[in-house]
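Troubleshooting log. The previous structure file for this entry was overwritten by mistake, so regenerating from the original sequence record. Sequence copied from the archived sheet and checked twice against the printout by T.R.
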Amino acid sequence: MVFNTINSSGYKLYSLNQVAGEIGAKLVLGAGGFELNDSKGLHNVKLKTGSKSYQVDGNSEAFTVAPVFYNGKTYVELSKLVYALGGELDADASTILSFARPEGLFDTLHWTAAGSLIANKSDAESAQLIKFSTEPGNYEVFSSNDSAVDFAVSPDGQWGAFNDETGLLNLINLSSGATKTLGTDNSVKTDLVWSNDGKIIYFIQGDKQEKIAKIAVDTGEVKSVLADKVENKSELRISADQKSAVYIVNLTGIAKNDADSTEDSLTVDFSSAGEQLYKLDLATKDAKPAALTTTPDNKLYPEISADGSVVYLSADAEGNAANTLKVVKADGTSSNIALDVEVNWSTGVNNGLVVAGSAADGSTVVYSIDNNGAKSELFRSAEDVSEVAVSKDGSKLAIVSDGGVWVVQGGKALQLSK
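Regenerated output below.
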């Protein structure tokens, strides 16, 4: 917007009426001067032409130059008025935000059904979840629940699932922030995964992550899925048709000793130690997990594709080789997915994958890979990106860079925090 301005005592003053309109403040002229209220009713400003003194929420402040009445219009100092009303001004004074963007460090991003973005303010003294719209300056404190800092979002984006401090599963409404307890089971639960229809939440269960179970969202009833006593399960994934599960097992060394079981004879065999991918047939009763991998590399971010193949990030355990994105097909054969970046993050969306990685020039690149293998670039940045968040349908993308929250629209990033 181009503002009407005048110069007064060497300072540029701006049209009061235009500034109020741009920031969305209600402007009233009374016998005692002008009164302004922001659109949320949070701030009140009272000022008079010819007087440097003005009031902000009942407290006295001072303009550098007094407001001026000229040619039928009142002109004021821009920055002080904008900040008094809780707004924000960009560096060249060309754009006014009705509400200042929140300051601080953020992480743990989640998209909601309404297109809002929920982030944890990681430098807050107590838990503080902020809900951002994609319009800078439009945000609200969503929740202060310590347990809800991270949650698993339902496929429709309406609910988040998390465990409270007692081990009970809770649901948080991502519109209102209201929470409710689901069931009475207080066993240890990790890796919460919603079924595609939103009726079931699967999870890894037990102090040693030795079981897989599921809970009905409508009744809270918990049922066992797998109890093979194999410990250290993680990264649970469920196929869209709920016919298969994939997870990682962190295998440890095997202790061996002689027939007398003496301490001196005790040895530990680490030859089979490491992370391995397993697949479980959920459609067949009493099915046994099948190993998908035997290699010593670290495995991250497994996803089950529409054709039943499993994609995962392979990272060299010794750090001597670049990360690669691998696919294990239904027939057991494995191959690499060719990309021009070193992948460091991947997630599944309705129509394929979204991956992020580092290019040769050090920039971060985010790609979409559809179910047919077609790749398209969504975003590229020379700045460090510590987190990427994508909506389940793949249509919305956000990042955390240097602790700040950015939403990506049309390949360009818009900063939501500062």
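The CA atoms of residues 390 and 397 lie 5 Å apart. Archived copy saved in two places this time.
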